[in-house]
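Researcher: Here's my situation. A collaborator sent me these components and asked whether they could plausibly form a single complex. I don't have experimental data yet, so a predicted model of the whole assembly would be a useful starting point for our discussion.
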Amino acid sequence: MSLQRLAPWFGFLFGLALSCLLALFFNESPLHVLKIVTTSFLNSKFDFGLTLFYTTCFIFSGLAFSIPLRAGLFHIGAEGQLTISAVVAAVLGSILPTHNWFGILIIFVITALTGMLSALIIALFKYYRKAHEVVVAIMLNFIFAAISTWLTINHFQNPNSQNPETAMIADQFQIFKSDPLKIYFDQSPISLFFIVAVAICIFLYWLEPKILYFQVIKSYGANRQANQRFGFSEIKILATVMLLAGFFSAFIGLTEVMGNTYQYKLGFSPAYGFLGIAVALLARQHFLGLIASSFLVAILHKGASDLDLETQFLTRDFSQVLQALIIFSVAASYFFFSRKKIKVESEVTK
Amino acid sequence: MMESVFILLLLSTFRLSLPLILASIGGYFSEKSGVAQIGLEAFLLVGAFSAATATYLSHSLLVGYMAAVLASLFFAQIFCLLVLKLKANSIVVGTGLNLLAIGLIPLMSKSIFDSTGSTPALIDINTTALLPIIVLAVVVLGSLYVSEKTLWGLQIKFAGEKQEALLAVGVSPAIRQWQAISFGALITGLGGAILSTYLASAYSPLMSAGRGYIALAAIIFAGWDLRKTILISLFFGFCEAIQIQAQSNSLIAAQIPAEFIQMTPYLMTLLALLFFRTKQQAPKELK
């Protein structure tokens, strides 16, 4: 494996080291911080299950970012899509009259459709109005957040709580409450969605070289003009990647509502949509790499949230600092390794 | 009665528009130089926090404003180093910068004030409207002059439109972009200072409340035109003022939910993108 392929992992290690060194400014030992953020997931079965729950959400958000990136789209709209999907899942779960498998199917299908359609808006703006996907995604993130807040507080507020959250979904829909993973990990937030997320990554890894359309999407990302000359429909490519991205964003909402809290809680996401960027960059958009990078980022996220208890000056907010520094180092790592390569090549040609 | 409501709304619009106008002018310079800027939220937050902290510790508003400028300039250098020198993607770095500000500020407030993200209230400090008004006047007139009448302003536009033209006259586009981003961050940081020392009397967690994104929306809605950007920021400030008025008026609050007024800037930007082809107005080299 060439060094260039390992660039993001070197970046990751550099970002981690930098974050721990930053702890010095807050009168904390870097080694102590490193120990907490990297090992706290092993404290108990519950902690490990919680880390795997984060892994599940990061896998889905990594997929939601990396699939559009294959077509050259920067998709930072997952946050809005997962929010609106979670609300839809929670609302359907609390109002549907049919409390059986058909009801669960309806929740899954409508939630997935909500995520997909909300992501499709970005593709339509991109194709028909030539609007930048990042701009549209930022606007939609706020619009979906406002709609979700309005729906939650004004129409579906949990009558038994003062917090802004929807009512619990019907007991019959809480099927993941007793799934084997949850039982094994002492009722931690993990659910069978973890298996689904890993299986999707493995399936996509297997499928990618076999389906020509994946190559068409990649070629569109690499060279739009050439792709158009071959006659591939631009809107079809944009719609495909965004529908897939929306589908995976919706699964974060489903993981939370169907597998963890059984309701929608305002602000439940610790910016999963944005952290998907770090996960996808770290994995270089490789589908199997996404599993590993999601697990790593989840370990750090879980570890950083324990800093409140384990250190005097650092709080769980350190998680964001850690993720920001990792994003920076990973994003910059490509420069060092590609520059080295160019230098070596030029030496050889001399 | 109606007159007093109208005057109140007008004054409220002016007050609430101040950070928005400054942030949108700050973002304008970066975008116009060809670097997409979604890190405005970070500049606002560090500006607000450092201004409140320095003002509290020094009992001087001027020192607070200077601290905001220095802190946002420091953040801008991280952005520039990564984007211009190390060729990282500006959207990725902008997202990281926002995360860094959100995470770093509570850690600093904990170690300086032993609080969970806020600074102590600025009680004994005279936070009159004079300084913000002077800052606004200088920034608005100065940036209009710099952007429209100076060679530097023209070169910033060329950095975003046609970099070969700049190279042909021996000017480095990267240096102009570096200057534009730093200048923009400085102005946005001042917006943050106004947020914590004039609109409020302390820093509270995430007090920018998405204003960095609203400022970006104003730039895009205005089609990357500085004069229109300022006017649209005023309009978005008006929307915020209406929202606050509506919250205090139960009749209006019952008719128009606050969430819908909150989303007005974003919805209007999408509608602008839908009905006007603003892509043609975007800087050609914007990445």
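Model: Some features of this prediction you could bring to your collaborator: Chain A has one domain: 46-314. Chain A touches chain B through 47 residues (CB under 8 Å).
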